[in-house]
Amino acid sequence: MVEIVPVTSRAQKRAFVELPFRLYRHDPNWVPPLRDEMHALITPGKNPWFGHGRLQLFLALDDKGEVTGRISAHVDDLALRQPVEQGFGPGTGFWGLMEAADEATAQALIATAEDWLKAEGMTRAIGPMSLSIWDEPGLLVQGFDHPPTVMMGHHLPQYQGWIEALGYGGIKDLYTYEVDISREFPGIVSRVIASGERNARIRIREIDKRHFDKEAALVLDLLNNAWSDNWGFVPLTADEIAHVGKKLKPIVYNDLIRVAEVDGEPVAFMITLPDLNEKFIGYRGTLWPFNWAKLLWWLRAPKVRTMRVPLMGVATHLQSSRLASQLAFMMIEYIRQASVARYGSSRAEIGWILDDNQGMRSIAEMIESKINKVYRVYARALT
After folding, report:
1. Can you tell me whether residue 184 is helix, strand or coil?
2. Which of 31, 76, 135, 220 has the fewest CB atoms within 10 Å, i.e. is most exposed?
3. Contact of 364 with 323, CB cutoff 8 Å
4. pTM (2 d.p.)
5. Is the link from the previous residue into 227 a cis peptide, with omega within 30 of 0?
6. Domain membership of residue 146 as a residue range
7. Is 243 inside a domain boundary?
8. Together in a domain, 96 and 218
9. Is 4 within 8 Å of 95 (Cβ atoms)?
10. Strand, coil or helix: what is 226?
11. Strands 92-100, 124-127: parallel, antiparallel or unpaired by DSSP?
C-alpha cells in the first residue's frame, strides 16, 4: 500500500530533501546535493521562481509510515504565456523532483501530481522539470556510468520504464557533450579562429569581476535574447537574474566567462564553471563542520579535471550566420587555453544542448566532442 501526503511541515520538507540520500547511497555516480541548496530551491522567499510559480510537494509513505518517494507538482505563469509551438504555453503544468523506491510508488506519485495539476486547470503534464528549464530539466536516460557535472541531474535507470509505462512520450532530448581539451582542436577550427583574430570588428574579452553586477546583468540579458526562440524558453526575471548572479559569483573567474563584441556591441557570451561536483561528491550534502573551509580554500586557486559550459549564446540577429560560429569557436578556444593552463583541466562538458539545435550541435561536433549524457523531457495529456 502507498499513501501520498502533501508536504505541509518542516519535518516533511526535511524528509523530502533527505530521501535521495537513502535511495542513492550505493550509487557511486550520484553526487549528493548540498541540503541547504535543495531547501532553498523549494522554499518561497529563497527562490525567486516563486514570484511567478506555485508548487505542491508530495511524499509517498509505505504501510509503516516510512518515506518511499517524493514529487513536486507546479505551475509556472511565465511558461503559460509562452507560444505553444515553443513547447509550453496555456494549459501546461509540470512535475519534477521525483524519486521513488519502486514502480507502484512512482505511479502513485505521478498520478497525484497530475490530479493537482488538473485542479489548477492544466490540460497537459510535462516532466521531470525541477523546477524550471533553468534548473535540472529532463530525466537521465543515457550516461549512468559516470557522475554528472555541476548543476546536472542523475537518476535511477528504472525511472525511464516506469514513466513511459504511464503513457508519457518523450518530447525533447537534451544532450551533453564531452571533449578532451588537453589537445588542440582540428585545423579547420584553428583557421576559423585565426580569421576572426584578423577582423578588427571583433573583440573577445573576459568579464571583469570587479563590476560583477553589471557584467552579470549584461550576460543574462544576452541569454534572454539568444535563447528566446528556443524550445522551452521561459525568460529570467530581474529577480532571478540577480539571484543567479549572487549564487554563481563565488565560482566565477574572469578568464572562464567571455563576451564577444562586434563593432563595440556585445553579441555573444560563453559561461564556463569549474566542476564543483568533483568536490561535492565527497561532502555528503553539507558544508559543515569543515567542508566550507576546504571549499573556500580550493576556490582561491581551483584545480579541476572537468570544466562545464552550461550556457552560451549569440544574439538572435546573428544566429545561423558564419560570424556566429566564428565567435563561438573563438570563445571556446580562449577558454580552453585558460582551463588547461591555469586550472589544470583536461576535459570539458558542453551542455545541455537541445536535440534540434543543429547550430550548437555542429559546433560541438567540429571540436570533436561526443554525446556523453542524454536527458529526456516527457509529456502526457491530462484527461
Report:
1. coil
2. 135
3. no
4. 0.96
5. no
6. 3-173
7. yes
8. no
9. no
10. helix
11. parallel
